[in-house]
Design goal:
By secondary structure, the protein is α/β, with parallel strands linked by helices. It folds into three domains: 4-121, Rossmann fold (3-Layer(aba) Sandwich), CATH 3.40.50.2300; 145-214, no CATH class; 224-384, Hypothetical protein af1432 (Orthogonal Bundle), CATH 1.10.3210. It is 58% helix and 8% strand. The chain has 21 helices and five strands. The chain has helices at 13-22, 38-47, 64-74, 89-95, 109-120, 128-135, 145-156, 161-168, 172-182, 196-203, 205-214, 224-247, 253-261, 265-273, 275-286, 291-299, 303-313, 318-325, 338-353, 362-367, 374-384; strands at 4-10, 30-36, 52-56, 79-84, 101-104. It has a five-stranded parallel sheet, with helices on both faces. Helix 12 packs across helix 19 (338-353) and helix 13 (253-261) crosses helix 18 (318-325). It is globular, with a radius of gyration of 21 Å.
Length: 385
């Protein structure tokens, strides 16, 4: 397998030299290029595409925002990380549509290496090409207009964090974008969080308003039928998240809720990029065909693989993307999150069944050690009904 190609861009020769030194041992797994300034970086991109670009923000001539926007247009499948020591909110918002992650300078080697690994070294499958093709032009997910207007009304009235959290949690797209921003050093405190309320507290309601108005988060697919499907998916995701949260142990309830809320983001990507095929998926699924088999047939990838890769590129905590990835087969999940993946699997099956017997992957639940918990989860679901 060819090594992943990474481009580092900065106008400081000493900083580039330092990066070369600290990452020297990684040359066995990554093919790394170091460009002095934006123009030389573009010259390198013109020669051959990169899998990932890490760029400084403030550079003479072509700055980081301009560079990443140009790379997005020329090589849309490239993962784009912005690295800067200047927390200039206007500039950050300008580059937000083109940057998948934001890291602060000085960035310690462990943080930088973890960001590179999480973005590039997720489980590789034969469907990587299909995933890259579908994600190449996606930098935001749609949010329904009702959430936008409700959020603006609350923020205009100086609403409490609790009230704002209630509105934000109704929509997986906005949750994903809020967590994407907070789980980096610009807007957060350097610690990863999966708590939506904590994320909103760290971001602040005014920044949330700025995000809503300037980052084009609140967009919907123009296809009417798919737009309706997205709204239905968002409503269903909230029911699944509420249920999955009750299945989890107290310390893991934030992870359970957020991962369930985001479990269908891959379907939202398909609604944006492949609406015709998504309508075909719905018809064939309603006719009784296996949903995963249909997805592989139509798109070359299952929606959970697509969603997990997007969340990883956005820099969300690995546990979240892994729970989303293994939602249909929890036994394959890393041991620490198998119960959460199993809980999501059961919650999604129960909500999707709409009163009929849920279709469970009983073999995988058994292998994951979740089978003895299912009866208790059924009872908890009955109490919520």
């Amino acid at each position: 397998m060819a090594k992943k190609r990474i481009l580092f861009v900065d106008d400081d020769p000493a900083l580039l030299g330092g990066l070369q030194n600290v990452l020297a041992k990684d040359r066995s797994r990554w093919d790394m290029t170091f460009a002095l300034g934006g123009q030389l970086a573009l010259d390198e991109v013109h020669k051959a595409p990169f899998d990932l670009v890490v760029s400084d923000m403030r550079m003479p001539g072509i700055d980081g925002a301009t560079l990443l926007l140009a790379i997005k247009d020329e090589c849309p499948s490239t993962v784009r990380i912005l690295l800067s020591g200047y927390a200039d909110q206007d500039t950050i918002m300008r580059v937000l549509p083109a940057a998948h992650q934001l890291l602060i300078k000085p960035c310690d080697t462990r943080t930088l290496r973890a960001a590179l690994e999480h973005s590039l070294e997720r489980p590789s499958t034969a469907r990587d090409g299909a995933i890259s093709e579908l994600l190449c032009s996606i930098d935001k997910l749609p949010t329904p207009p009702s959430v936008y207007f409700d959020l603006m009304r609350l923020l205009d009235g100086n609403a409490s964090i609790a009230a704002v959290t209630e509105v934000v949690t109704r929509d997986p797209a906005l949750v994903a974008k809020v967590l994407q921003l907070v789980n980096n050093a610009y807007f957060g405190n350097g610690a990863k969080t999966t708590s939506i309320r904590q994320a909103i507290s760290l971001l602040g309601t005014q920044r949330l308003r700025y995000l809503a108005l300037t980052a084009s988060v609140f967009s919907v697919t123009t296809d009417p039928e798919c737009a309706q499907s997205v709204r239905e998916l968002q409503e269903q995701s909230l029911r699944i998240a509420t249920l999955a949260q009750t299945f989890a142990e107290p310390a893991a309830r934030d992870e359970a809720f957020v991962s369930a809320l985001l479990h269908g983001v891959g379907l939202v990507v398909l609604a944006l990029g492949r609406p015709k095929e998504l309508r075909t998926l719905a018809r064939r699924r309603d006719a009784g065909e296996d949903a995963r088999a249909i997805e592989l047939d139509l798109f070359g990838v299952a929606h959970e693989e697509l969603g997990a890769r997007l969340l990883a590129i956005w820099g969300l905590p690995p546990a979240i993307s892994d729970i989303v990835l293994y939602q249909r087969d929890p036994a394959k999940a890393p041991p620490p999150i198998r119960r959460l993946a199993g809980g999501l699997h059961v919650a999604a099956a129960m909500v999707s069944a709409r009163g009929a017997p849920p279709q469970l992957n009983t073999e995988s639940l058994e292998l994951a050690g979740c089978a003895p918990l299912v009866d208790g989860w059924r009872a908890a679901a009955a109490r919520q009904a």
